Amino acid sequence: MFGDVIHSFTTSYVGLWGELAVGDVDNDGHVDVVSPATSLGPNVNGIAVMRGDGTGRFSSYRWYRDTEYGVQAVFLADVDDDGTLDIVSRNSGYITAGIKRGAGDGTFAPMELFGIPGPAAITVGNVTGDDKPDLVVASRAEAVGGGRIFVLENVDGAFTAGQPFGDPQFWAQAVLADLDADGHDDVVGVDEDGQLIVSLMTCTARP
Ligand SMILES: [Ca+2]
Ligand SMILES: [Ca+2]
Ligand SMILES: [Ca+2]
Asked: How far is the CA of 141 from the centre of ligand 1 (A)?
């Protein structure tokens, strides 16, 4: 037996399309929801943040319109290791990876954009082995310059432009795990033919 829908939340003239994420973005102990959000009239893209009140309802809603590219998916991670959840977004177009740093009170800084061709998946992990979260993008082979793993290294909380690794693959999705226990997260993914592929990462942090 499953539950009925007992609450919905209407975002007036904004539609929530894409892959959403949940987490406590304002550190009040209640789960909040973050979603790609596009206006229903003129095509304005952005990200909506809905703060949960702990009852299944939402006490506030804010729409950030700081991307000219469509946001296809978001997830939450503390990318700068300052104790607050940040938003990582996978966007359409060429400027295709973005982060919005969270202040810890439910508000977010303007999006920082990174030009990675054709991202199929974006994830966060310790790829360079220095225990700082790096951004990792698996890109689609049909994009110009794509089909590679791009590592955006975390240097003192800022991220480098993506450096490509590995031979071109038809990445469709990817997650990180340290498969060979060498202290560097590796990329585990599936290609567009449905085959499991692995890229063992050996890159080291910049001195
Ligand atoms: Ca919360
Ligand atoms: Ca953070
Ligand atoms: Ca490894």
From this structure: 38
